[in-house]
Amino acid sequence: MSHADLTWSAWSGLSDEAAARTAAAIARSTGTRLTGVGPHAYAGRGGRVAFFDRDGVSFALVPGGTAQLGHDPGRFVPDARLRADFAEASTEWALTEPLDRFLAEMTSPPRRVSLPARLVAVRSVEADALLPTDDEDDPEDGDEDDGHAWLMAGLDRLGLRPPTPDEWEYACGAGATTLFRWGDGYPEGLPYGTVPLIQEPNLFGLVIGDDPYRAEFTTDPAVLCGGDGGASLCGGYGSFLSWIVLATAYRERELAGTVHDGGLLGETPLRPVAPIP
């Protein structure tokens, strides 16, 4: 069996010794250095993580398999504070739709997907830091597809790529089907500064969806995940509209155009993925 077929359940069911052997084999096949394997917990869930190093960039193993993605408004039961925050936002910003319909429009639809196991960078990096190019070759402005193609080609030369939108969403939620990777509610205050819940490594050991400003590229030029570029925070939109941009399935559909039209390509984050052969 290829290690690309390693599922979450299979990885979790291995003995410690077998997990160490499997991780070592993955390191050999991906040209990385295994730096650790061990137990890890996040938001009341427990699992096992494996970390790897490639040229100073830390990667974590994200097992594959079949997963439920997207936000299902029929299953979601908001708590009293979220309902109150949404009511306040609706009044202040003239939101005319009910909460369930609003969330459905701001998130990806519920779906079942099958994904391969892969190594995913623990933290995102700016494109300029990962892909140094001559200024004349750097498409800071212009067509969205051209700029995205530049990113993809540069990563491909390194044997890397961004995650697909499905892969990003699964890597963030780590199998959680709640609105956020930690549950259906959010802490008091705004998602800015030191907030342990969003800045702690998730169940896969990834620091992801930790900053509304740092929406990340995916393989789809029209889809960035993990925030809204800071628009809600900068705009003073309040708790609900600021926190919702960190929902696992959140999609800001106009953000990609803003990034490319505004010359923000090089400083927008992406999260390298190293495929497992």
Structure described in brief:
This protein is α+β, with helices and mostly antiparallel strands and 277 residues long. The chain has eleven helices and eleven strands. Helix content is 33%, strand content 18%.
Descriptive overview:
The longest helix is centred in the first third of the chain and has 15 residues. The strands form four sheets. A five-stranded antiparallel beta sheet has the order 1-2-3-6-11. Strands 4-5 form a two-stranded antiparallel ribbon. The chain has one domain. The mean pLDDT is 91. Helices cover 33% and strands 18% of the residues. The protein is of the alpha+beta class. It is globular. This is Formylglycine-generating enzyme, required for sulfatase activity, contains SUMF1/FGE domain. InterPro entries: CTDL_fold, SUMF_sf. It comes from Micromonospora carbonacea.
N- to C-terminal separation? 11 Å
SS class? alpha+beta
Alpha-carbon Rg, integer: 19 Å
Coarse shape: globular
Q: What is the mean pLDDT?
A: 91
Name the poorly predicted regions: none
Number of helices: 11
Order of helices and strands: HHEEEEHHEEEHHHHEEHHHEE
Helical proportion, percent range: 25-40%
The main β sheet shows up as:
5 strands, antiparallel
Largest sheet strand order: 1-2-3-6-11
| Total number of domains | 1
Strand content: 15-25%
User: Total number of β-strand segments?
Assistant: 11
Protein name: Formylglycine-generating enzyme, required for sulfatase activity, contains SUMF1/FGE domain
Region (Disordered): 129-148
Biased composition (Acidic residues): 133-146
Organism: Micromonospora carbonacea
